[in-house]
Design brief:
With 331 residues, this protein is of the alpha+beta class. It is 31% helix and 31% strand. The strands form four sheets. It has a six-stranded mixed sheet, sandwiched between helices.
């Protein structure tokens, strides 16, 4: 009798981050314990879901039942392990589908993922927590912007970034007022709303958090030293960065970051594996963003933190999958 659970590793998606998702899904399939789980990659693109079966090739997955016809058998899934960055895996859309289908899934719920994907709303939700927030101006596509007024309020240099996007797509570090309009145009290719945000010089730090109903893991803090001007796509995915775990910071700062990371996780009602990014500058800790579907290549930050803690990704994903199923059964 086969008591192994069928895990759908949801990958792909409809954003610029599709390739990153596919790499992460391939790595996660290697991490999952084969004695407990049957790992099945499921690619989502547009309105199609496709099971990448190791023996039978590409098989359509039904939206009506979240199942696939494999030969003469119907393959169903016990849990969806979401590795889709951007839409629809990180902004609440896919979570809403799994809620309606009563399928266990490994991220936060509809509200959590929709909220945290919106940088502006996330910052508003974190007001009152012991963390500093960079000044910003929210701009919708089509609105007029006076660069002189922006510089007067925000200063230079500054960042222009999409309100809803990830992996540093669409982000520009602006050093001159005359660059603001073109930076906004670049940002609008990713999202119709942009944030013009003050530049905080300092050390980039990040902390992973994993919580289940019975266990909490606040991971070691990582120091990020980009070879470029900031933690951009090249730094994140093309090894143009030095990542140091644990970070070279005082113990009291480490404790503060881990404590506030746990508090942010709870305030935003996160679930599963989450990574929270910061800048430490001017002797203050500034919140940058929450990643509810963090990168999962072998060299990604969370796996580094897990290894330093003396655990394996096999351990962590086992926790997350079992917790997702328990939460579904409790609904």
């Amino acid at each position: 009798m086969n008591n192994k659970l069928n895990i759908a590793i949801m990958a792909g998606g409809n954003s610029s981050e599709e390739g990153i998702s596919l790499k992460g899904a391939a790595q996660i399939a290697k991490w999952l314990d084969p004695s407990k789980y049957n790992a099945f990659p499921v690619m989502l693109k547009g309105t199609k879901m496709t099971l990448k079966h190791p023996k039978h090739g590409d098989i359509p997955v039904s939206w009506d039942s979240f199942s696939a016809n494999v030969g003469e058998e119907v393959l169903t899934f016990d849990c969806a392990l979401i590795v889709i960055h951007g839409t629809p895996g990180e902004n609440g859309l896919l979570q809403g589908y799994f809620e309606m289908m009563n399928i266990a899934y490994t991220t936060g719920g509809v509200l959590n993922t929709a909220l945290t994907f919106c940088k502006d709303t996330t910052k508003r939700m974190l007001q009152g927590i012991n963390i500093h927030l960079a000044k910003d101006i929210r701009v919708r596509k089509g609105e007029s912007v006076n660069p002189k007024d922006v510089v007067k309020n925000i200063g230079l240099p500054l960042f222009v970034k999409p309100n809803e996007s990830g992996s540093s797509y669409g982000i520009t570090k602006v050093k001159l007022a005359e660059e603001i309009v073109s930076a906004l145009e670049k940002s609008f290719t990713e999202d119709p709303v942009a944030l013009i945000e003050e530049f905080i010089p300092g050390m980039e730090l990040t902390c992973g958090v994993v919580k289940t109903q019975s266990k909490t893991l606040v991971l070691p803090v990582t120091e990020i030293v980009p070879k470029n001007e900031f933690f951009d796509y090249g730094a994140k995915y093309e090894n143009e960065v030095e990542e140091i775990t644990p970070a070279r910071i005082p113990d009291d700062l480490t404790d503060y970051i881990q404590t506030v990371s746990s508090e942010i996780y709870d305030r935003l009602d996160c679930k599963g594996i989450v990574r929270i990014d910061y800048i430490f500058g001017n002797k203050k800790l500034y919140f940058l963003e929450v990643n509810t579907v963090p990168g999962m290549s072998e060299a990604s930050i969370v796996p580094q933190q897990v290894a330093v803690m003396g655990l394996t990704m096999n351990d962590v994903f086992g926790m997350v999958i079992e917790d997702a199923i328990a939460r579904k059964e409790a609904r």
